[in-house]
What does this fold into?
Amino acid sequence: MFNVLVNSEYEILFNQLKAEAPDSFELTLVDFSAPDEKLNSLLCTTDAIIGQVNLSDAQYESADRLKIIQTLSAGFDRIELAKAKRYKVMIATNNGANAISVAEHVLMLIFALYRQLLFHHRSVTSGPWKNLKHTNKELSGKTLGIYGLGRIGKELAKRASALGVKVQYFDILRQFETEKELGLKYVFPEELLKSSDIISYHLPKTSFTHHLINRNSLRKMRSDALLINSSRGDVQDENAIYEALTSGQISAAGLDVFEVEPLPENSPLRKLENVVLTPHSAPDKESLILAVRNALDNLLRVSNGNEPQSIAVDHEKETRKFLERFPDVEFLP
It folds into this structure.
């Protein structure tokens, strides 16, 4: 029997996980935030964990059969990769299960801002039937700058290109084949900020990306540019975004993530007209179904002695390597 502990963060998906798991899997729902004697005894016979779980050294030592910690999300920032590596435990993500969903959400935010959707909706429902079509914008022909070309960034690039958008990107890992396949232009951060009509961030939470969206980076953007962030709230300085939106440094913003979630009631962002705010709602039901299947497929691979897909990349390590190669690049503009 291949024993799998599922963290209670995925309780809503537990029945689906059990229904789709192979007969050789034994799944148990546990709460890693409140460890007890039962959890400690279960760890001794655990082969895999599903969840963003950061085990203590003592827990790793107890779980001497543990082979993999699998997340259902693209992110894994709550797990210490170096510690897991010391105990020879693999960390794997959802293998892009939510990539299409988030890419579509980003396009929705862009269209909502360019077509002033919220204003026009209120104009119909509350009156006085006024339209601002003379100030609407077309997406076709614009330049989209993607900051971070992971799975989500690639899916966004595909869809934006199909809509007649020029796409450029920056990533610490340059991807020549994708550039050729999709016709992308690779530029460093400062050029990305200065020359894009829209900047969309798709980055993990690391010490290097904390408040990457800041007063200085926002000043480098064009005054008619859109800011989109659907990655991590930690990436943005919301006070700086508010100042940029109210001073005219940038035109508008679409945000699906925030430094504190739920967004506090006294956040000044709530009162602005040139924003579209969504409650970390980019994933959809199809992406959750796919995340479950990808996770179980990965665990089946491991149970059969094979390598899993979508091993977590150490972004801290890769960023340091990039900065050593390109010391003159202003990674934090």
